[in-house]
């Protein structure tokens, strides 16, 4: 109710401001990038709350009507014309050099701020402004694509979004069958790991006693889940996704549940890319589950390995013989896993390669190749198990040869594991995973001796 009242109040202020603008014929700006830049300049120059809110809404509406070229020109104008006030900055620098003090340092800090940051703050005051700015940054990210000319603008937008979407503003809500339909529809649409085929499939994931779904929301975007996690309550750690999603599976009585399995985590807003709150989501969900079901003692993921097959195909330095490479070509057959002999031969190759992929392989910059691994290991999880034939869906076969992994969140070890990964790049792994890597070494020795 409080959010609705505040939204209505902003809408009223904005509409009154629009009336003022119409009376002053101030909204006849050209409906193109140049006209929009001029309107942004006027927004920064104004002081009235009502007219400013209305003008901010006008800017966002006009932006929404621009085509891709117009939006690109608008972004370029923000980079070109809305940087720091150079004269003010020069004076602040000179004053600091002459007689440095805390007050002068503060003045230098504010003088160096680009004007576009204040512009973005004022746009955020418009009704619905926060969501529109998130969508605007999604456009910006799509246009950057390795180009650096818009990087300064992206730094300013992401800096402000990071402040507005920090953990203190986020609200955790459980998603169940009583959740409003418009939000449930977005859960179906945004699911990025294991596609939700229809409403019946969604209900099987959120309604049974042994299933949970949680999402983070922001007060300014009350109907938009920002990130959500799907959870299965099981007796033991699972090694495959199909039994968890099966249509005819038997529901587990809650008193028998000992393991919480995070089997899908989906970010929903591209415009919030690089603003991480997934770790907070997992930790808070763990706390919720422990309060609700105290007998839970194991918290683990069942995760995809999205970059594994691409790595196998592109890395020319893999520890493989010519014979091994011929065997790997059998992965091109979409039904390879139905042949027991082929499956056995591929398993002897794929499992050690997967261990090498996680424990040894790195990008040219020294980072782990797999984004899912970076996320969970950075959050303090342990690489617990590599699961052969864990995902036989077309996507799973295409991206990872069916391999899935479990990351274990052992609460007493999270901080230690995080520090090992963050400071030294160490992948904390179970002995079972390390043995697979040793198996690779034994196989290479056999190759040399033969």
Describe this entry's structure for a reader:
The protein is 54% helix and 10% strand. It has 20 helices and seven strands. The chain has a five-stranded mixed sheet, sandwiched between helices. The N and C termini lie far apart (75 Å). Mean pLDDT is 89; it is low at 20-29 and 441-450.
Describe the structure concisely for a colleague.
The protein is of the alpha+beta class and 450 residues long. The protein has helices at 2-23, 33-45, 49-65, 68-81, 86-98, 102-111, 115-124, 129-144, 151-164, 181-190, 199-206, 242-245, 278-292, 308-314, 322-328, 340-359, 371-378, 394-400, 414-424, 431-449; strands at 171-174, 211-217, 227-234, 259-267, 298-301, 382-387, 404-408.
